[in-house]
Write a structure and sequence with these properties.
single chain; 11 helices
Length: 443
């Protein structure tokens, strides 16, 4: 959803591939490589890497007084497996290029293991959204009263994800009990091997500030094994790069008390929490202001009693309108809760040779469709709804959030840029005067 130009090519797949649609649709990095194969996938990824992050971007971040970058990486960069083999060749060289740019502008880099084998949260940001269930109209009984999204009756292919979402990095997950029936210690060990490889490769690189070994392990993750994983990884890092920081995500359980006393007194640890308002219910600006300000109390309590806290992700979004935020051609049940704005779908940042980009203006919505709606139509793409006094609201909200984050040890805005969404785009938010420029502790 940050770079939809990479994925427009999969719109209309049911028209071309009929019942073979699932093998030809990319919804995340895993299925992108699976659908395109190693040669075409790698060709497109190399074009993406070289054009999405440029020296001009890093220079602009530097001019906005950003001092740190949280860089998401996949475990396949150090241990390729499945469709990543061949498809992601060259990723480490591109990462090294970024480290060189960060060093040139005096920035520090947090290496964020964002995507792990088996998926730690079942979302596309983990590399593989689990579990996607495909079906054709032929799969339904002849007298079925199920409704289909516009166009599905003709193309005959749909998918669902949210009802079957699961995460199996740590083990085998049972959807009925919402619990793990078995643990995959070998996968945790494999991730620790990647952490070890990262430390061995970059322990002397002055631009690297530390490692985050897993991004957003979901709320059903068994807390005991997760804490053990964090502890074992901490020892790996401290043996090889003792000056690095060790960032641990709260598993969406910051308020639960589960982290009280954990690793207390250990040097160089950080608790990472992600605070968004995009999934909040619609309301007046003042409600969002109050919610933002209230976060400072929890952050201050953790700082005082548990460990240093970093707001590792946040944005200025106050609704769920960003196209594909909740998955390719899909949406969470009940979302969006507001009437979204529409803008022309962006020209592809990697150039016009990118297949399918931008979506043709003469096409209406095209499948395959999930159980929700978020998709281009007639060359227009949905984005966050503007407030009547949008600049004032965004500026006030940005200031209140930054004040709350100041009670912790810093923050990272998600993301540094976006093709369509200014409220998820740090550089655009700065250009629009929304207040995050020059704030201390910013990344």
């Amino acid at each position: 959803w940050i770079t939809p130009s990479l994925f427009y090519q999969f719109l209309g797949a049911p028209e071309r591939y009929k019942d073979e649609t699932p093998q030809h649709v990319g919804m995340d990095t895993y299925t992108f490589c699976e659908a395109l194969g190693p040669l075409e996938g790698n060709k497109q990824l190399r074009r993406h890497w070289s054009t999405w992050v440029t020296e001009q971007d890093i220079r602009e971040l530097y001019m906005a007084n950003i001092d740190s970058l949280r860089v998401p990486v996949g475990d396949w960069m150090w241990r390729p497996y499945g469709p990543y083999v061949g498809c992601t060749d060259g990723a480490i060289e591109q990462f090294d290029r970024l480290l060189g740019l960060a060093a040139k502008y005096g920035m520090k880099v947090l290496i964020d293991l964002h995507a792990l084998e088996g998926s730690q949260n079942g979302l596309d940001n983990s590399g593989l959204g689990l579990e996607t269930i495909w079906r054709t109209k032929a799969d339904l009984p002849a007298d079925s009263e199920e409704t289909w999204q516009a166009g599905e009756a003709a193309t005959g292919t749909t998918f669902s994800h949210w009802a079957s979402r699961k995460a199996e990095w740590m083990g085998k997950f049972d959807l009925d009990s919402k619990a793990y029936s078995a643990l995959y210690w070998h996968r945790l060990d494999a991730t620790l091997d990647v952490v070890r490889a990262i430390a061995q490769a970059y322990s002397t690189n002055a631009a690297v500030m530390g490692v985050q070994p897993v991004n957003e392990p979901w709320q059903f993750t068994p807390i005991g094994p997760l804490k053990r994983f964090y502890w074992e990884g901490y020892k790996v890092i401290k043996r090889r790069a003792p000056g690095w920081k060790w960032f641990m995500h709260d598993s969406f359980r910051l308020h639960s008390g589960l982290w009280r006393h954990f690793m207390r007194g250990c040097p160089g640890i950080m608790l990472d929490t992600h605070i968004y308002q995009a999934w909040n219910r619609p309301s007046e600006p003042e409600v969002f202001y109050t919610n933002a300000c209230a976060q400072k109390h929890t952050i201050a309590e953790y700082e005082d009693q548990i460990m240093p806290v970093v707001v590792g992700e946040w944005s200025l979004a106050t609704d769920n309108c960003a196209m594909w935020l909740n998955g390719f051609n899909d949406n969470l049940p009940g979302y969006p809760m507001v009437q979204c704005d529409l803008v022309p779908c962006a020209e592809p940042y990697m150039g016009r040779e990118q297949p399918g980009a931008p979506p043709p203006r003469w096409f209406n919505q095209r499948g395959p469709f999930g159980t929700g709606v978020s998709t281009p139509a007639f060359g227009m793409c949905p984005i966050d709804k503007s407030w009547p006094n949008d600049t004032d609201v965004m500026t006030n909200l940005g200031h209140k959030k930054l004040n709350a984050w100041s009670y912790g040890h810093g923050w990272f805005f998600w993301n540094f840029k976006s093709e369509l969404e200014p409220k998820w785009d740090y550089l655009k938010s700065v250009a629009n005067g929304w207040g995050a420029r020059g704030a201390p502790g910013g990344g």
